[in-house]
Design brief:
The protein is about 0% helix and about 40% strand. The chain is an all-beta fold. The chain has a four-stranded antiparallel sheet with strand order 4-5-6-7, with no helix packed on it.
Length: about 300
């Protein structure tokens, strides 16, 4: 089953999706350049539509994703920090997708993930939570959860991710987006960590914690995990901050990136002298993307908070 957490829109004319943070606007523009045009070709951008999402709907760190939620074609899904709602509008027209928005009660700064469902449609999985003191202020700051919605906006399950290894309580904020994929067992899993010391693997059907999880992290997690084929085996590549001290997972301050198996075992760990808040990206080379297990796998990540 091909997962579509991130999608490319295969069109001769490219489509650009953007959101405006301060006004709660989703806009789509088309470009006049052809996909195969030379790099010297001119680029023209034309606004196709812009949709106001309503008052108090500021979008800050959440990026738009693409999901198929009804028979009208693809929709854009994105979350709001200020009101904690997840919005869905049709990609072609900007009209509201039936059954949406859905409001979580807590800030959404993460990017919604997409999970194939029955009938060629998609479920939407979203994490919630942001830290206190942000501008604009986050709804229900400091708390968080993970929620799965059906294509029509029906809530399928919701749960918190308790910090079993640290002192951040039963419902810490979850700023990282969910990673969805086969972690090495042939079954789809959701991998996500919160502003805590606990990294979870969940059953997408129920939200239940998979045996062997959660696993302790080196510090809080703001980065979305990657799930990729490494050396012929599906693996999890997880990044977090790292703080040394008694009982700490690592003996350095900064950041940590490690490769993990489906049972929660750690293969290798990379130390960074700066925090790692960006998500790891996997690069396969050579010979080609269609022969991934034959190529060399490279893990790329950015350090620092960007402040």
């Amino acid at each position: 089953m091909a997962l579509r957490q991130s999608r490319r829109i295969a069109r001769a004319a490219a489509v650009l999706v953007t959101v405006a943070a301060t006004t709660g606007v989703v806009a789509v523009a088309s470009t006049g350049a052809q996909a195969a045009a030379p790099r010297t070709a001119s680029l023209s951008v034309h606004l196709k539509w812009a949709a106001l999402l309503g008052g108090n709907s500021e979008i800050d760190l959440s990026s738009p994703n693409i999901a198929t939620l009804d028979g009208a074609g693809q929709s854009i899904v994105v979350g709001s920090r200020v009101n904690g709602c997840v919005y869905a509008v049709h990609l072609a027209t900007g009209t509201t997708t039936p059954g949406w928005p859905q409001c979580t009660g807590t800030a959404v700064d993460s990017t919604p993930a997409v999970l194939p469902a029955a009938g060629g449609l998609d479920d939407v999985v979203v994490t919630t939570g942001a830290s206190p003191g942000m501008d604009p202020a986050a709804k229900n700051a400091g708390s968080g959860s993970i929620v799965e919605y059906g294509p029509g906006g029906t809530g399928l399950w919701s749960r918190t991710l308790p910090d079993v290894f640290g002192g951040l309580g039963p419902d810490p904020a979850v700023a990282a987006s969910p990673a969805i994929g086969d972690t090495g067992t042939g079954q789809t899993r959701i991998v996500v960590g919160g502003v805590s010391l606990s990294l979870y693997s969940l059953d997408p059907a129920t939200g239940a914690t998979i045996a062997g999880w959660p696993q302790k992290t080196a510090d809080t997690t703001f980065a979305t995990a990657a799930i990729a084929n490494v050396g012929g085996t599906q693996q999890i590549i997880a990044a977090s901050d790292s703080t040394a001290g008694p009982g700490a997972l690592n003996n350095w301050n900064g950041g940590s990136v490690r490769i993990m198996g489906a049972p929660g075992s750690t293969g290798w760990t990379i130390a960074s002298n700066e925090v790692v808040t960006s998500s790891p990206a996997m690069r396969y080379s050579p010979p080609s993307w269609t022969a991934m297990s034959q190529g060399m796998v490279q893990t790329v990540f950015q350090t620092g908070s960007g402040a």
